[in-house]
Amino acid sequence: MDKAIKDEDVEVLINDLLEIYGYDFTEYSRASLSRRVSRLQALDKFPSFAEFRYKVRSDAAYLKRVVEELTVNVTEMFRDPPFYKVLRDEILPVLATHPFIRIWHAGVSTGEEIYSMAILLHEANLLHKSLLYGTDLNPAVLEKAKKGIFPLDQMQRYSENYIQSGGISDFSVYYTANYNKARISEFLGERMIFSTHNLVSDRSFNEFQLILCRNVLIYFNRELQDKTFELFDNSLELFGVLALGSKETLKFSPLEKKFKLVNPNEKIWRKIA
In 87-240, which ranges are continuous DSSP H helix? Predict the structure, then answer.
């Protein structure tokens, strides 16, 4: 089991990342950061925090790995199939009434969810009039997302998720297998724009009909969650939709009254004011 690092060491690391590299983790959950730093220290076999800190401060290349570990989200295609079923049955028919559809995946990670969305849009005959924005703090995961290449041994599970979400095709039509890799069909990526964006410090950059930010806010403290909700509110058009992860909620936030829960079983809200 990974040995937890001291609270003061977490603060020192947060300060280093901000002062030297400009990465702002000041409002991230300390418990989450502590777990992830402890895990990284154990994985990379640093005997002490001091040696780990020296490596972070002196090796910009290693910093990439640190940021990836601190921000990475567990993700898969059609994760939580009932969520995608609601998107398919209740949200896309409303989006279809718009002449053009803009969707933002905030915290897109390695891209599994944005490709899932593209498949939904394709099957609803909406992809041609949609633009999907995928943003993340971490440039390394964005590069992976752009490539749309995933381990072939994950496709069986993704296919099962897809079927449970109401998929209408054979999932294998959406990728080509090459040795141990699966490359997602290029036409799905043609409607995507990937860019670095920091939910902590960057502003709204467009107006969207749908924003998805799933299983990212659980790593933020309450103050940063509220700040992020404000960013999403500023980025959503009236009656636009915000989708969160299963353990995340708009309840108790200052913006709660501006949104209405769309579906009692999924964390999907519509902006009503």
Answer: 92-95, 112-123, 139-147, 155-164, 186-189, 222-235
Report the C-alpha gap between 63 and 56 in whole angstroms.
6
Output the pTM of the full model. 0.83
> For the residues 244-253, what does the mean pLDDT come to?
90
Judge whether residue 3 has pLDDT over 70. no
Nearest CA among 73, 28, 196, 61 for reference residue 13? 28
Q: If 0-12 CB within 10 Å is exposed, 13-18 middle and 19+ buried, where does residue 142 land?
A: buried
Superfamily of domain 81-271: Vaccinia Virus protein VP39 (3.40.50.150)
- CA dist 130 and 98 (Å) reads 10
Domains of the chain, residue spans: 7-71, 81-271
Could you give the CA distance from residue 142 to residue 213 in angstroms, rounded to a whole number? 15
